[in-house]
Write a structure and sequence with these properties.
Strand order of the largest sheet: 1-2
Order of helices and strands: HHEHHHHHHHHHHHE
Number of strands: 2
Number of helices: 13
Shape: elongated
Structural class: mainly alpha
Strand content: under 5%
């Protein structure tokens, strides 16, 4: 895996983020300057999604699975739901239709929960476009089966918000630990504080940190990161479950 360098093709936002982060004068800045402008939102997944419900469904389905296994299960799920994942189709489908694709009981329940909320307007593209990051994250976290990681990746990978920082991500923390030459891996709380320097382009800082782990052998020390790669095609425009919601 590697970063998507944009170079002379960089958009105005990509170049602004590169120049801003490269001028911070901290340990990340040299890496930013040596890398050049990047696409912070590029995903390298094996399937396409067409809307926020499909994006979240794929993300839930792919937890703790390899890329190929996740893609196979998601493809079967789409087929069982008639070629597309819609709120109506998920809500009216029986458990066998969902679990027959290879979903666990917990994942099937989480996707159904998301679909029920989507049917209430939670994932309406026009509403999402007008909502601030914090409000979207709070609404997603109120849905059983969605945890901080999923909510943050939805903001970053799907909605393309420029100032998202997944402080709990192990790869992000490993990269900061390496850059800052710390004796042990930085904590999520300390990483969150560290990220304040990178506002309002923390999504780009995150992408540069991930890229460092991808391209520097041993830098991640076995760290896990968002690895459910998908080419997202979004439409234009606190209740929690038991178990591990990411």
């Amino acid at each position: 895996m590697t970063m998507t360098r944009t170079g002379k093709r960089a958009t105005k936002e990509q170049r602004a983020a590169y120049e801003y982060l490269g001028a911070r004068g901290d340990s990340l800045a040299r890496w930013v300057r040596s890398t050049g402008p990047i696409d912070a939102y590029e995903s390298h997944r094996l399937v396409e999604v067409h809307g926020p419900l499909e994006w979240l469904s794929f993300t839930i389905a792919s937890r703790q699975l390899s890329r190929t296994t996740a893609a196979a299960i998601y493809t079967r799920l789409v087929a069982r739901l008639g070629g597309a994942i819609t709120a109506e189709r998920v809500v009216t489908a029986d458990d066998q239709a969902l679990r027959g694709s290879g979903l666990s009981h917990q994942k099937a329940r989480a996707i159904r929960e998301v679909a029920e909320h989507a049917d209430d307007g939670l994932l309406d593209p026009r509403r999402l476009a007008a909502m601030p990051d914090a409000e979207i994250e709070a609404k997603l976290l109120a849905v059983a089966g969605i945890g901080p990681s999923t909510a943050q990746m939805f903001l970053l990978r799907y909605l393309h918000r420029p100032d998202v920082f997944p402080a709990g991500d192990l790869a992000v923390r490993s990269a900061i630990t390496s850059f800052d030459r710390l004796d042990c891996r930085i904590t999520p709380k300390a990483a969150e504080q560290r990220s304040e320097l990178w506002r309002p382009y923390r999504s780009y800082a995150t992408a540069y940190l991930w890229g460092f782990v991808w391209e520097s052998p041993g830098a991640g020390e076995g760290a896990e990161m968002d690895s459910r790669f998908v080419r997202a095609q979004p439409k234009r425009t606190t209740r929690r479950s038991a178990g591990a919601a990411s």
